[in-house]
């Protein structure tokens, strides 16, 4: 009786299909079921049923546990596997192949067979070898090197402002976001499998575009912004005057890129007269501007997956997101503390 109750518990709770199947066979046999009846119900062979029953009689419940074998030994050694990964990471042109510029698994397999690197290999085995070695299928990225001869000096000045905001001063990152088109934007959402959300593919610009001028206050982590039809120096200067009015007794340190309205004589003159320092990024170094990360979040959470038909509707969505974000905001600290840029003494030739 005790064995029967234990077998019933196994049939109700076991997550191992082999252990579950064997327990059911033994339980049915203990209930007086004949071997043909068990084979018909379980869709297994008579020999399998008899082997399970005999093993249980000899070894008890230990006979229910599967004994997995290690499987067939590897036919492709580690040295060959590493060579396969090396070939995969190289361009086909490096091997004298000019018909295509990148490998597919099928093309890489054919190349390995033609060169005699392996005698036989399937695409699935090839995929597993690459994956085990940390080689994955990735999109190519671009790198635009800075031509600024004072790159390191200017970068270190900005990092110092981020790390040690001056007493009695306020560090603010400013930039433009846009253009804000009225268009369907691809995005991601949780949906039933195989049923993606559909957006229209065609659109027009009858309503033109708008631009967002924004400022990230590192002291509070909040974003202050405005949306305008143009992004000339006049609109930019209006934003700066708003920031000046918000913190009238503090020196402003404005981190910005080299966009021409930022360097306009009127902007420079106003900054000199209003206790404001314009801290320009090195050329082609927008990634040093902390507000860029905030723009990425804005694009992902407020715009991607939307299809606004009017600027009022789209502007309201942006405003709603920024209100939510500012309510959660924390002071901005620890900018890229583990990044290699912290140890640069010169600008690298590439980003590898």
UniProtKB/TrEMBL annotation:
GO terms for molecular function: nucleic acid binding. InterPro entries: Homeodomain-like_sf, RNaseH-like_sf, RNaseH_sf, Tc1-like_DDE_dom, Transpos_IS630-like. Residues 170-304 form the Tc1-like transposase DDE domain. SUPFAM superfamilies: Homeodomain-like (SSF46689), Ribonuclease H-like (SSF53098). Pfam families: DDE_3, HTH_32. This is Transposase, IS630 family.
């Amino acid at each position: 009786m005790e064995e029967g109750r234990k077998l019933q518990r196994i049939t109700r709770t076991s997550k191992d299909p082999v252990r579950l199947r064997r327990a059911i066979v033994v339980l049915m046999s203990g209930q007086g079921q004949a071997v043909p009846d068990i084979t018909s119900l379980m869709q297994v062979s008579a020999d399998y049923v008899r082997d399970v029953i005999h093993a249980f009689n000899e070894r008890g419940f230990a006979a229910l546990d599967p004994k997995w074998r290690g499987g067939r030994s590897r036919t492709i050694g580690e040295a060959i596997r590493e060579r396969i990964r090396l070939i995969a990471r190289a361009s086909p042109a490096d091997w004298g192949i000019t018909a295509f510029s990148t490998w597919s698994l099928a093309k890489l397999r054919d190349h390995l067979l033609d060169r005699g690197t392996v005698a036989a290999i399937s695409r699935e085995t090839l995929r597993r070898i690459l994956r085990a070695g940390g080689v994955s299928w990735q999109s190519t990225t671009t790198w635009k090197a800075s031509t600024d001869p004072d790159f390191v000096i200017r970068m270190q000045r900005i990092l110092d402002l981020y790390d040690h905001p001056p007493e009695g001063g306020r560090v603010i990152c400013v930039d433009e976001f846009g253009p804000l088109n009225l268009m369907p934007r691809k995005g991601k959402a949780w949906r039933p499998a195989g049923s993606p959300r559909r957006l229209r593919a065609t659109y027009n610009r009858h309503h033109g575009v708008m631009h967002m001028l924004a400022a990230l206050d590192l002291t509070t982590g909040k974003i202050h912004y405005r949306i305008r039809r143009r992004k000339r120096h006049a609109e930019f200067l209006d934003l700066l005057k708003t920031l000046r009015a918000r913190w009238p007794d503090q020196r402003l340190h404005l981190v910005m890129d080299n966009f021409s309205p930022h360097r306009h004589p009127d902007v420079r003159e106003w900054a000199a007269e209003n206790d404001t320092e314009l801290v320009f990024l090195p050329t082609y170094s927008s990634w040093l501007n902390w507000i860029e990360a905030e723009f990425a979040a804005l694009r992902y959470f407020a715009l991607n997956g939307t299809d606004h038909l009017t600027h009022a509707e789209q502007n309201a969505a942006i405003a709603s997101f920024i209100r939510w974000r500012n309510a959660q905001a924390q002071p901005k600290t620890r900018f890229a503390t583990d990044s290699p840029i912290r140890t640069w003494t010169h600008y690298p030739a590439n980003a590898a």
